[in-house]
Amino acid sequence: MIEYNETIEEFLAQHADDVEKAVREAAAAEIMPRFRQLADHEIAQKSGPHDLVTDADRLAERRLTASLGALLPGSVVVGEEAVHADPDVYDAIQGDAPVWIVDPVDGTRQFVHGDPAFCTLVTLVRHGVPLASWTYAAARDQLATAVRGRGAHLDGVPLRAGAPRPGRDLEVATSHPDYTTDAQKRALFGLWTDGVRPRPCGSAGLEYLAVARGELDAVAFSWEAAWDHAAGILLVEEAGGAHLTHTGEPFRVTGGNALPFTAARDAATAARIAGLLSGGVGQAA
Question: What positions does the entry give for Mg(2+) binding (predicted)?
Answer without folding.
Answer: 80, 103, 106, 228
